[in-house]
Design goal:
CATH class: Mainly Alpha
CATH architecture: Up-down Bundle
Largest sheet: none
Distance between the termini: 26 Å
Number of domains: 1
Number of strands: 0
Shape: flat
Low-confidence stretches: none
Helix content: 55-70%
Order of helices and strands: HHHH
Number of helices: 4
Mean pLDDT: 90
Strand content: under 5%
C-alpha cells in the first residue's frame, strides 16, 4: 500500500494546484499545509520558529503542523488525499 499511497498522494498534490486558492477557507489551507508537512517530513525535520514579529503567517503554519504531528506519514497522506478529493469534487474539477 505504501507505494500506491505515495502515487495517490503525489496526484492529490498536483490536483491541489488546480483548486483556486481563494476558494479554500484559510483554516482548511492551514490544515492541508500541516498534513503535507507531516506527510513529507523526515526524522531530521523539526519544528522551528523564527522570532519575527511580522511573521504571524509562519506561526499559524507551525501551529497547523503541530496539530497533526501525532499522525504517521501515511495517515497524514490519507487525510490530505481525502480533503483534496473532496475539494475537487465540490468544484467539479
Amino acid at each position: 500500500m505504501g507505494e500506491d499511497l505515495d502515487i495517490l498522494f503525489d496526484e492529490a498534490f498536483k490536483n491541489a494546484q488546480l483548486i483556486p486558492q481563494a476558494s479554500v477557507p484559510i483554516d482548511l489551507q492551514l490544515i492541508l499545509y500541516g498534513l503535507y508537512k507531516q506527510a513529507t517530513a523526515d526524522e531530521t525535520d523539526s519544528f522551528y520558529f523564527r522570532q519575527d514579529s511580522q511573521n504571524l503567517r509562519s506561526a499559524f503554519k507551525l501551529n497547523a503542523w503541530m496539530q497533526v504531528n501525532h499522525l504517521t506519514s501515511d495517515e497524514a497522506k490519507k487525510r490530505y488525499i481525502e480533503i483534496i478529493n473532496k475539494l475537487m469534487k465540490e468544484r467539479n474539477l
